[in-house]
Amino acid sequence: MQGHYSDVWQAVARALPERLAIRTIDGREWSYSRFAREAGALAAYLTRHGVERGDRVAMLLYNTPELLVTFFACLATGVTPVPLNYRLRPGEIAALLDDSQSRVLVYPGSLEDVAVAAVAQSDHDVVLVRTDDTDEPDGPGSRWADVVADDVPLPAHAPDGGELWIYTGGTTGRPKAVRWSAPDMFEVQMFATYELGGLPTPTTMDEAVAIASDPDTSPMVNLPLAPLMHGTALTTSMNTLAVGGTVALMCSPRLDAERAVAFANEARATRIIVAGDAVAIPIADAAERLGVRLETVTSVMSSGMRFSAESKRRLHELADLRIYDMLASTEGGGFAVTITTGIDDLPGRPKLFPTAVVFDADFTEIQDQVGALGVLGQRGALPLGYHADAAKTDATFPVINGVRHVVPGDWVRVQEDRYIEFLGRGSGVINTGGEKVYPLEVEEALLAHHGVADAVVIGVPDPRFGEIVTAVVEPADARTTAEELISHVGELLAGYKKPRHILFRASLERTPTGKVDMAALRGEVQQDREEEHA
Questions:
Q1: Do 355 and 504 belong together in one domain?
Q2: Which residue, 98, 133, 178, 189, is the most exposed by fewest CB within 10 angstroms?
Q3: Residue 223: inside a domain
Q4: Nearest to 147 by CA among 47, 24, 256, 29
Q5: What's the pTM value of the predicted model, to 2 decimals?
């Protein structure tokens, strides 16, 4: 089915105007009619401020209704929505505003200082829209409540094309915007929206609305506990709205696991989105402390980070649910999924999606050769590429045998029946709690401190976060402390990029060509951490 999210959402709103689209932990509710009405009002506001089709609107927002309403308004009018990581510091946000040339920034009052400082550092004018999540009624920019007060209908159909951008950490230390065509994003999500949800796949808009309206199907209630600025939480929420479900939102920058468990039961959540062990472990801990089960949850989904068999076992013990552990990327959507339906299925194995392939070094497909080693590829609906980086686009999206693919660099070993063993990515990117950190960026921040002569940043295994950012530092001043350096990095970079552990060495013992024995350093760091926690 060729479609567009905003057209499907509008069709559902017309068919089911009083159906609950969004609810928040503090008791606020958005019916589908309110969801569409506020999107129409915001779209009209953007037009009045000169925002045209193809322009970008940035969102520095937590998991809030305003983020989803902004997406709706943008997609319906051909404006490009650009979610930003709310953990970034002003200089980092300003760089993304400039890279995307966003015309508008929607931000919460609680991030006023960050947003205002970022806009002040930007190289172009940015209109501010402020949502109310504090007791302060006023602040820079237009108030969200005033912006969405009008009753202005959305265009009947989204314009052809249209894009949405998702920034990914990549391997350069500077986030790059992956440009998705909105219709292509809808197409690539059809499998996750319908088949993984146990629903028939529609071929027309009427069929899509009929599926959403089916009285014999209980509406999905999706609770994203991973940030909506990341692809999995965002797309699963968009998909939920496409099938007439409800998105339940915590509206907080931090995970309060006990409140999340209570809200899941109160909202009768049927699906929870986690960021692997970083979220699953505290959720399981909280449920066990509270002595409750996840009463209505039938599925848990995660993507792109460590999700251990032990954490999955604990979740299976809390509910009769399926766990979908996705091997995915912003650049290609889902490549493979590990599905477990109970403890007996653990640890589970990833199985390739229908559109995924495995290539050898000569780009010959080998996904049917058991035992072969290769890199994952994907074909079908793919992103347009990276914004303003033709060379990286060509490298990541090669045309193979006349067909465009995405090949991010994930190595796997082929098993029978399209199962695979995931071996890892060939780059040095650190994946910590679902966030990507490029070591060079952190090293540069450390070297900017007067007490650092040399530094190397690596990721070391961690049972909760998959990896943690760790630094090995050669001090220029013996009085330099780890706490001082961690605070220094935190002033320059997002909190998740700060080293969680620092090991001081008299010398990094670089070779004449500047290389460091990384394997030896990892061993030293691991031993130092074990001794520290002994």
A1: no
A2: 98
A3: yes
A4: 47
A5: 0.89
